[in-house]
Amino acid sequence: MSDIVEKTLTALPGLFLQNQSTGGPGAAKASFSSRLGGLVRGITALTSKHEEEKLIQQELNNLKATVSAPTTTLKMMKECMVRLIYCEMLGYDASFGYIHAIKLAQQGNLLEKRVGYLAVSLFLHENHELLLLLVNTVVKDLQSTNLVEVCMALTIVSQIFPREMIPAVLPLIEDKLQHSKEIIRRKAVLALYKFHIIAPNQVQHIHIKFRKALCDRDVGVMAASLHIYLKMIKENSSAYKDLTGSFVTILKQVVGGKLPVDFNYHSVPAPWLQIQLLRILGLLGKDDQRTSELMYDVLDESLRRAELNHNVTYAILFECVHTVYSIYPKSELLEKAAKCIGKFVLSPKINLKYLGLKALTYVIQQDPTLALQHQMTIIECLDHPDPIIKRETLELLYRITNAQNITVIVQKMLEYLHQSKEEYIIVNLVGKIAELAEKYAPDNAWFIQTMNAVFSVGGDVMHPDIPNNFLRLLAEGFDDETENQQLRLYAVQSYLTLLDVENVFYPQRFLQVMSWVLGEYAYLLGKETPEEVITKLYRLLTSDSISSETKAWLIAAVTKLTPQAHSSSIVERLIQEFTTSLDTCLRQHAFELKHLHENVEFMKSLLPVDKSCEDMVVDSSLSFLDGFVAEELSQGAAPYKPHHQRQEEKLSQEKVLNFEPYGLSFSSSGFTGRQSPAGISLGSDVSGNSTETGLKETNSLKLEGIKKLWGKEGYLPKKGSKTGDETEAPPVPQETMIMENVDQTMAKKDQSQVPTQSKDEKEKQLLASSLFVGLGSESTVNLLGKVDTVSHKFRRKSKVKETKTGETTSTHNMTCSSFSSSSNMTYEEDYYLDNFQDRGDKELKKISLNSELLDSESLSELPLVEKLSNCRLSAPSLFADNMEVFHPPQSTTALVASEISLASSLLEETTEHMHSDPTEVCNNETISVSSYKIWKDDCLLMVWSLSNKSGLELKSANLEIAPVEYFKITEQPGCCLPVIEAESTQNFQYSVQMEKPFTEGNLSGFISYQMMDTHSVQLEFSVNLSLLDFIRPLKISTEDFGKLWLSFANDVKQNLKMSESQAALPSTLKTLQQELRLHVVDIIGNEGLLACQLLPTIPCLLHFRVHGDILALWFRSSCSTLPDYLLYQCQKVMEGS
Amino acid sequence: MQFMLLFSRQGKLRLQKWYVPLSDKEKKKITRELVQTVLARKPKMCSFLEWRDLKIVYKRYASLYFCCAIEDQDNELITLEIIHRYVELLDKYFGSVCELDIIFNFEKAYFILDEFLLGGEVQETSKKNVLKAIEQADLLQEKTEAMYHNKSFIGSKKAY
């Protein structure tokens, strides 16, 4: 390094001499930036970081004094700004100068202004508060007659501008779109682009002007407008389909070399423009045959014109290939594009090779043979010295993984994992390995060993879903019980072996997984007694490297094993040691263990073996304590007051006058049994803390069955109802699985086939054959489908959120998993059966759909088109079958008639239930889709009605809804109608249930259909759902209200201020009744009781009292989050009315 | 484009332009990590990097590294050409540019960059047009500078 510094130093004088002598643009700088020069030279001369800090701090102090001195001229200020920018670039804080930068932009002449604006753009970000001070300056400069000033103002606006001040400059900028100078027009368009990014709704009204910019006679302005279009088309491509022709024409002109030579870049015509246009076309042509057809010619031309001589032509080619693969496919083009990908992959240039791999990664699902063609290159890239190439190759392999090549691919991934240190890569790769392992694991031994590797490397950085899913998989198992036991046994054995190794430190998460598994399943080891396992766990407990969280897991495991053990000396030692632990949590666990240990029989009943999946009910209201509490109260104990009440009282004591009574008093008969008003809360909050943890446990797997199943009076008996959400039917086996745990040797043999570093071609061939099995030409079509159905060995149960990984490779996977079991489907069919009786004929179509989907699963290997036609074929027969079963009601014909009359497209339910008005969610020239909600008593029914505006019939209309975390869409998520006749309307219905309370959610999906022959169109839509959609009145008596009130633990209190007009109780009640759909149970004086339920069955009670202009709301519910959400809704309603 | 960084082989930052709002602390962290990562790469290696969730495109010109962060769906090769065009612009403006030109006239380098890329998007690809815009602004500058020089010359003459 020092020689470079020297060189720089020797070059310095020469540089200055040159500057002074030569003139030109650089010449003027010496005089005014010499201070900067001095600073730079000073810094370069220093040898240590410490000296640099000292010097710059000194410099900053000088600058601080200078900029704030009143005598400083603007010219000096400009010079100071430059130095400030430099200091800040070196990483020092120069925030004192920010305000002066704004001042300089405001007051300076052109030159100073230019530096002032530059400093502002470098110092501030768009949310910086000082930026508001710049708005006036910008407005002034935009109105200036000096072009340079206008340019500067537009430049700063395009970079940073406070969102809320957009209206102040928007009209001025719109004016500039008509400016005679193209540079001004161009910058104005880019400023609007910036506005569109930060506040899209503010520029919505000027879309017409964007079109004008697109047609601008200057190429630069037109190119600038493409930024806006690209962004808008990304958001909603269907609205801009009509522009396809224009974009195609522009691209044709560009490719044909019709632009001014100025726009050539290394003799390639306007490459940036070409790429922008190609990206736009790719978005427009996606899944749209008619639009795609318009662009085939120009794409062909682009592929042909790009002669391979320069990087920039490769850039265009790459984009072109991407577009060809995104739009509706045309075989000729695909062929050419595939050839292009070949050129990339085979190129000796490393950048192109990388892009070739990247292209392969995204085309691999459409065309797996392409990977076969390049298998040898892929193998080479797998051992490439550049880790980036390696990683991209792994990404590619990840996409082609199947049951046959899983072991080789995962091994390669693990190799890479062991070499990488960057956290982001580790997290990413570990997630992929875990996903693949769960999907395609060939046997138990391999699965457990791979997961061991995942846990040891991913350790504490990996996504917490991975260990949770793993444990869930072990606990819930799949359908073959002996196989489950073998998997568990293998896990236990492997962990015990791992724990035997001396001086190895495992990540905390891994240890937690181990302790859970050992605690639950160590009983499977017939020979090894629980004592030995306890001994091992105890040894871990005493280790220093274990976090206290992990220790809690370990103690829980010991607790579970204790009843199985014969002798308990170690347990006693543990109790002795940890009951004096300084960690409260551990101490508590130890005491729990101690007390349980005193009654072994009881402990055995409390901690049954292998019952982790059994649901248990936690009486979160602790109602079993009521007797105890009542007794205490009768003996004069002070009633318990919840935290907020205590606080309120404390606050009110400080006031001179208190207008609020101290406790709530209910005069209703429901509470006569209680003695004091405060007694209302007595059943609930006695130990709020443990109640809460109890609730949490039921939701997550990891703690299930470990603790908190006992209350003060003893073990809580199991009840029928489930608090958890694992109610789904278990999947049916795809095939009987082979589960010999001797397979380990097999796996090893397999791995030994894989050459690690050898250059030997033969070995590479071997590797290739093991990597690309299942990709042969005969299986090209059914590659993904077939593999999936066969080998979802460790598929997670119903609750999997496959989309969450984001990397999930094929949509097919998703469909597959939604059909995870045929029993599930029969179940749903039954469900329809019940429904059909009263819903009438219309539903029949849906059931036939349903069965079609059943069919289509088995057909999934067929290409799409064929599948659809098959469905259509199978429909009538199924339909006929169903007809007999369902006994359609008498009124069928009448209903059909009414359906045909397009005018009333609402379902008949709508007459019985409240419903929203239909709103159009998406449309195009042939169809229009509107949706509405029917608030049925037991669910929310979403109806999408698709009306065919065209005179042609639509085939294979299909509506799919993307799975959302919070909702359970209980009907079949895919609908496929064989035909929608011309000018008719068809309804799709989905009943939606909420799984977790939330305030607002989005349901999105798409509708696809086919016109005439094969042309398929897809339209996207989304619908907003709010919590209120799932709230129904709960009709109960005052007495029941009282009982329920006492049994609920979760409460929320809030005082709301009301306006004068609302202050009357009746009007408030009415608002709440109407807006929130609450049931008014009773009104007693100035107090009101309301009740509602969150579908399906979560009740929530509201007690409220009007006192002056204060509305005291008190919610209680069995669900911990619901009161908060409802309170929020209440507040909204009250503010709104 | 998310941001552009210029740094020397010694890891010294020479120019930074951020097109996404980030806190100073984050900027510093990103810069530090990225400079380290890029400098650690061997010359024959690929010009693209996957770094966190960003794609980094970098290229070395003499002692200076030019480094751009783009989103995943952006075209890496054309980003390389953006870097190249910027270097060409600097070269034309300064007349065979070297690192020192950029150190001592970094504000000029910023002006050129702002004329070429605006808000993270390519604004003007024609070399001629970019330089014309810069020169227009510079011209004003030179006029005033010249006036200033004359004055001081006269002033000094009087003093004699």
Automatic annotation (TrEMBL), chain A:
Membrane topology: Peripheral membrane protein
Keywords: Golgi apparatus, Membrane, Protein transport, Transport
Entry's localization field: Endomembrane system
Signal sequence coordinates: none
Residue ranges with Polar residues bias: 806-816
Function: Component of the adaptor protein complex 4 (AP-4). Adaptor protein complexes are vesicle coat components involved both in vesicle formation and cargo selection. They control the vesicular transport of proteins in different trafficking pathways. AP-4 forms a non clathrin-associated coat on vesicles departing the trans-Golgi network (TGN) and may be involved in the targeting of proteins from the trans-Golgi network (TGN) to the endosomal-lysosomal system.
Assembly and binders: Adaptor protein complex 4 (AP-4) is a heterotetramer composed of two large adaptins, a medium adaptin and a small adaptin.
Protein name: AP-4 complex subunit epsilon
Primary gene name: AP4E1
Automatic annotation (TrEMBL), chain B:
Keywords: Cytoplasmic vesicle, Golgi apparatus, Membrane, Protein transport, Transport
SUPFAM superfamilies, A to Z: SNARE-like
Membrane topology of this protein: Peripheral membrane protein
Pfam family name, one: Clat_adaptor_s
Intracellular or extracellular location(s): Cytoplasmic vesicle membrane; Golgi apparatus; Membrane, Clathrin-coated pit
Alphabetical list of Gene3D superfamilies matching this protein: 3.30.450.60
All residue ranges annotated as the AP complex mu/sigma subunit domain in the record: 1-140
Matches recorded under CDD domains: AP1_sigma (cd14831)
Family designation: Belongs to the adaptor complexes small subunit family.
Identification of the protein by name: AP complex subunit sigma
Organism whose genome encodes this protein: Vicugna pacos
Lineage: Eukaryota, Metazoa, Chordata, Craniata, Vertebrata
